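Final report, Chapter 2: Outcomes

The project's central promise was a pipeline that accepts a single protein chain and returns its three-dimensional structure in a standardized token representation, suitable for archiving and comparison. That pipeline is now operational. To close this chapter, we reproduce one record exactly as it appears in the project archive, with the input sequence first and the structure output second.
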Amino acid sequence: MLPRAAWQQWFADRPRIADVFVMLACTVPTLLVLILNPLPHAWLGWVCAAGVGVALWWRRSHPMTVLLIIVFLGSINPVAALAVAPALWERCFGLYALATERRLRTAVLGFFVSEAVVLAATGCMVLLGLRERLPILPLQPTVLAAIAIGVAVRASRARREALAVLVAAREDRAAAAERSRITAEMHDVVAHSVTVMVALAGGASAGWEKHPERARQALDQLGTVGAQTLQEMQRILRVLRTSDTELDHQLERSGHNVPDLGELTEVFRAAGLPVHLTEGSDTAAAVGSDPALRTTVYRIVQESLTNALRYARGATLVEVSVVQSSEQVTVTVVDNGRGSAQETNGTRPSLGAGVGLAAMRERAAAFGGSLESGPIPRTAAGPSHGWRVRVLLPREGDPA
């Protein structure tokens, strides 16, 4: 059985299911009354119930219009003569939809207009002899509660949207700073290396006849510098992806001047993610001695924790492990959360566009490493769930 958060997300992804429930809630009680207690002009009750059900299908796109229609139909329905407050359910659901989709003053206006519609419609029914007296129209607590809940839902949604815009703006600024840093780094690599290569080539040409041995050494050194320059440029260009809309997610600082992993995990703990970091002092020293490797490990852990924060619903533990061996550095991030949907085979579909995983894979490939990511498989003890990211970064040899 899916946890509560998964059920909520499942219904949120299918809003039409909620619309159907609302339609049934507003029409089924009326139809039961018409069936069990036949009233004069029952045909009008059937027509009004059907009209209310059909109109509620558009309650999200045209909330004010739908509110007025369903309140009017609910008020002239012969069943309303049996109720103290006509069209009560219709007003509750209509005003809730209006409060969630429009501003507060529009919802308040809809409340008073709906009261006027009820009074006018029932007054016409009294004049036509279809109702004995006008209803009492006090401030119904259920109607006011529907407006309050709708306002709270709209405020929560607006807050999430504003936070998403703020995060996107921060990522854009960080991405621009990262591109500027990489451009400057490329300039430094090219300017220094090409200057050295030109000097070596000139010295080899000048001393070819008088000092052939020195000329050969200069040419050998020229080849070494050229190969190192090419490797460094390839690594930089693999990170500089100008065609992507996002260079990296959640970039906190630019360049190799990144904080340590302990500070990073503290940020995510403050955001509510239960992170546990395992990193030996020898591993931290070894990784810190190579600025490029340190930045790569930091970005991979950062991206993995960001994905866990976004998608690992109900996670009670996120384990981050950075282990060093004589040949490689292994970075592992494992969470025990669940995604927004669970398939029957226990897997979890990706919720994002896959840009973060592609970025981590490219960073690992720049060091000749590899990345493995996916849901944790089932075990003999029972079904398992969660997500694991494992990156292998060789420490010996030049980067690819």
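Archive annotation: The chain has two domains: 4-138, 249-400.
This record, like all others produced under the grant, will remain available to the consortium after the project formally closes.
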